[in-house]
Records
---
Amino acid sequence: MRKKLLGVLLSVAMVASLLAGCGDKNDNTQTPDNQNETDDAGENNDGGTDDASGGGLVGVAMPTKDLQRWNQDGSNMETELKAAGYEVDLQYASNDVNTQVSQIENMISNGCKVLVIASIEGDSLGTVMDQAKEAGIPVIAYDRLIMNSEAVTYYATFDNYVVGKKQGEYIRDALDLDNAGDKTYNIEFVTGDPGDNNVNFFFGGAMDVLQKYLDAGTLVCRSGQTDKDTVATVNWDTGAAQTRFETILSSFYSDGEKLDAVLASNDSTALGVANALASSYKGDYPVLTGQDCDIASVKNMIDGKQSMSIFKDTRTLASKVVEMVDAIMKGGEPDINDRESYDNGDHVVPSYLCEPEFADIKNYKEILIDSGYYSEDDLK
Ligand code: BGC
């Protein structure tokens, strides 16, 4: 995704000025044993020692290149860390936990000073996290919390509860549920990977808004599938969401019954729902939520096939994490704005939560184009 070059360069300039004083020391070498998803997916750096300018090797472990956002996250992190004078070992793991574990092992043995990890499954990194702890390497959980590990030093993410809440509120307001009187509306639910701790917050935040309308009978879920595990989508996979939704449509909405709303926790699952609607539903498109403002979903928004998405500016998160890394490397305390929400089962992890906002047909130009996140051409 090269579309954001200008935005990235601007962010880089900002971060570079913030972190002025750091020297540049990059001597990256591609190695054949990198377990990358694509040929440009990662770099391996030998060694990584502190120098007077504050540089050192930072390991950045990303889950997959399949979803647009992780490509943006990885490339923003890499660009900004390099601009701040650090060496970067960026790896993508094809959504395979074992691959991610061995990538992190390599980062540790290559002498990285800080690990930034967007985990595939929050609960599956156990042993390698212990290795990081033993080696005294601080770990920043990136976007997704790493669970049940004492090795997690900090967490940086968007406010995941607020993401879900905004999705629920969007449905509430679009259907005007508070003034529904005796009217009832049909709704279905699709959330993400059961191993992703964020799902608890996305789904929890949305249900904290919508549950009372289900209880009151204003919202009706014809499939009866309302619990988190039943509505989960392994790996947030578009195809899996589509298959499940086609079954729901043919089983519960083939008799002309109208589907009014679908809570989808993110864009990859919303895309699966939109595909299923296109193939298996004859009525008007329901209110359909999403998250990430992926290009495919923004195009669907413009075409009236998805109602909203949550915009999480990956530039903001990357900048925040680079600030965290820099504070750690210089022996300081990173900026923290939440010390209570994210208990990983071992301890409450000091966190920085960025603010998400919703985008829909009315405001997407202002949020996505005027901010330089996308160009008009990206969305054609
Ligand atoms: C992220 C979402 C993303 C999803 C699928 C979640 O952990 O917070 O932004 O859509 O993973 O990759």
---
Amino acid sequence: MRVNLRKLFLIGSFAAILWIIVSYMSTLESPEPVKKFNKVVMIENTLNLLEERVDMQLKESNKLLDRVKQHLKKTEYLAKERDAKDQMDADISAFNPVLPVLVIACDRVSVHRCLENLVRFRPSKKTFPIIISQDCGHNATYHVIKRFVDEDSSITLVRQPDLTDIKLPRTKLKFNGYYKIARHFRFALNHVFKTLNHEAVIIVEDDLDISPDFFEYFLGTYPLLLKDPSIWCISAWNDNGKKDIIDLSRPELLHRTDFFPGLGWLLRQESWEYLEPNWPPAFFDDWLRNPQNTRGRSCIRPEISRTYTFGKVGVSKGLFFDMHLRHMQLNMEYVEFTKMNLSYLIKDVYDPAFKQQAYSASLKTAAEVVSYSGGPDDKARVTYKDAKSFQKAAKTLGLMDDFRSGIPRTAYLGIVNCYIRGRRVYLVPEFDWVKYDPAWG
Ligand code: UD1
Ligand code: MN
């Protein structure tokens, strides 16, 4: 009887719990179909909203991704630049370079002006011994040079021994001077590289003035010459170096160029070894402007020249001097090139950035460029399609308009850059540039 009561109590409780659960569930469910429909619409709306948000988020993420990509590109560029710099620093600190200065002299007694400046601005006799090579057997000039040699053991003199006339057909007699210059350069460079076995040399002509940072310029850029096999020379000269077409506020700025500028230049022994066997009988500078002779390599040149030529009376006579050379700007500010990061000039780093700058500049006509009076941060691009249109634009801009082996002065990858009325200007080929065309002149 007690057991049965217990059973009954258990069944009763179970039924009561069941009833509570069922009645609770029934309050949860909404029996009306309209309410159900509203809920579906609401869910649909919410889903649509969510989808829109996801879309927006996706767009934002893509934008962010683009920015990350751009940043990575920049970081990659900076890393390339840093690596190049690290390597150059390692190079320059691993040895104490000796960079002799070779002075090419003939019959100008004014060579004293050149020598005085070299002595005045030279920071170290040990790093920069001066070697004067004299051609022409001119006695008065010899005595001027002798004064410097006698006073300073780091200054030496060598004399070009072959003073014979070079036999030339009558039509070429007027070029006699250029034949003698080429013969003298061959002798002098053989003396420096073969007799004295120097690693590199800075070549200066007797009618050149130098800037106060001339030596610092070559010392700072020498590692580039060692590091980058696409560079064969460092020059102190900007062929388009007149004050109206350069940026006077950027004395530290350097460029790559496919046009050999000469007029104060640094050459390695290694390069002389392959140049010397084919050295030309005359016009050696134009010969060095033919890419076939320099293995298609480039030079470094400054925005503002580190030399100035005062030799109005010379082998090439005075017209060119009065038209151009007289107006060239000599840099007077001292730039500490040895403390600067110059790895932006390494080919891998320089080429893509240079092309990007040039081709992204806004398109203008040469006439618009020379009458511009806007802000300083802008940059402009003027295009040319052939030799004639190049020359026309160059004339308007005030640039040199001649070619050697099809290369315009200061050109790099077919592009000439200068600075006019507060902005960088690029004279850019309109066509897909592959190489210079010797037929242009
Ligand atoms: C021009 C170039 C010069 C280049 C030369 C070679 C300019 C401003 N000048 O000479 O850079 O080296 O063409 O083609 O672009 N000399 C001799 N022996 C001679 C005559 C001259 O050694 O018989 C020396 C001079 O001392 C001087 C150099 O050669 O150092 C150039 O002579 P210069 O008379 O100045 O000729 P440029 O017309 O300037
Ligand atoms: Mn000269």
